[in-house]
Amino acid sequence: MAAYAAVTSLLQSLDQLLETDHWILYKKEKTKILREKLTFFQTFLEDFTNIFLEDKKMKHLERMIHDTAHGMEDMIESHVYDSSYEGQSRQE
């Protein structure tokens, strides 16, 4: 299921970020809360896979979760890349 894969990928990105001392995590507590909420979504998606396949409204919800998770991951990766590039520029 696409939403499950997207949420799992986002969780992996957050886990990798939490393992670093990147400045984006100046609010690690909020990042951990976000991770908990995403873990809830992941469990929800696991438990209701059959419903998503059968119901049109649930398919729409699944698509929204998928798109949101991908968007969040893209924003995080872009922000990390931009800040890394800025850090390199300052050192030169």
Automatic annotation (TrEMBL):
Gene3D superfamilies to which the protein is assigned, alphabetical: 1.20.5.4130
InterPro entries: Rx_N
One Pfam family from the record: Rx_N
Single GO term (MF): nucleotide binding
All residue ranges annotated as the Disease resistance N-terminal domain in the record: 6-84
GO biological process: defense response
Keywords from the named record: Nucleotide-binding, Plant defense, Repeat
Protein name: Disease resistance N-terminal domain-containing protein
Organism of origin: Solanum commersonii
